[in-house]
Amino acid sequence: MKFYFSPGACSLGIHFLLEEIGADYEGIPIHIKNGDQLKEDYVKVNPKSKVPAIIRDDGSLLTEFGVIAHWLSHTCGKDKLAAGTFEDELRIMETLDYLVATVHMQGFSRLLRPQKFSPTEADLDWVRENGKAIVVKAFKLLSEQLKDRPFIMGERMTIADAAMFYTLFWGVTRLNLDLPENIVAYFNRLSMRPAAKRAMELEGLL
Ligand SMILES: N[C@@H](CCC(=O)N[C@@H](CS)C(=O)NCC(=O)O)C(=O)O
Question: Which residues does the UniProt record annotate as the domain GST N-terminal (predicted)?
Fold first, then answer.
């Protein structure tokens, strides 16, 4: 499969999963900072102009973080990432979707790209503060969910940890937000995993 990512973007979570499961993939960088996602060559691959995206071995395109992660957990990652019962799968998707749809798209988008939410310079700090409040509230709830367990769903790694990894890469490494102690310790543990180190190294983040 071909995996399209931008260094340090949300695709880092999929990169981490691909490395965790030892998938056979070709990583192709699309540099958002250079506007590569809007260039003709990439629009032909993914008309949404977003990363992550995967071209599977049958040539079909798969987009959206949760969908790619879910597909990996049912295919090449099934030994390591199988959900368990249907109820387990629902709870994993509930956490993952909160991270992608709320923490990333509502919170970090405002914190990191406030100009997307207002054309007025004077509003930007207010937009950032709103984004920060969404992120801080979410990680307080996620801290209560995590407790002192090794992974966000309990004893076993799941695809929800991949979404935790990239959102915390932004919250801890990039922005140094004041987040609950157990959340920061969990992120530091995830970051020490060989798969996380490899994904960050391949993205030039180490
Ligand atoms: N809903 C998409 C969101 C993906 C997304 O927003 N990706 C960002 C990088 S973190 C992107 O490609 N941004 C490029 C742009 O907005 O031009 C998903 O779940 O994969």
Answer: 1-80
Structure tokens given for 89: 């799968």
Task: For ligand 1, say whether the CB of 18 is within 6 Å of any of its atoms.
Answer: no
Structural contact between residues 99 and 163, judged by C-beta atoms closer than 8 angstroms: yes
Mutate to test the pocket of ligand 1, among 50, 70, 106, 170 (most ligand atoms within 8 A of CB): 50
pTM of the model: 0.97
Whole-angstrom Cα distance, residue 28 to residue 93?
27
Strand ranges across the sheet with 2-5: 26-29, 2-5, 53-55, 61-63
Which one-letter amino acid corresponds to residue 122?
A: A
CA distance linking residue 136 with residue 141, whole number of Å: 9
Domains and CATH numbers, the chain: 2-81+199-203 (3.40.30.10), 86-193 (1.20.1050.10)
10 pocket-lining for ligand 1 (C-beta < 6 Å): yes
Residue 54 in contact with ligand 1 by CB distance below 6 A: no
Q: What pLDDT shows up at residue 29? A: 98
The terminus-to-terminus CA distance of the chain in angstroms comes to 25
pLDDT averaged per 10 residues in sequence order, the chain, 206 residues? 98 98 98 98 98 98 98 93 92 98 98 96 97 98 98 97 98 98 98 98 97
Question: Which stretches of 29-123 are DSSP H helices?
Answer: 40-45, 65-74, 78-81, 86-97, 109-112
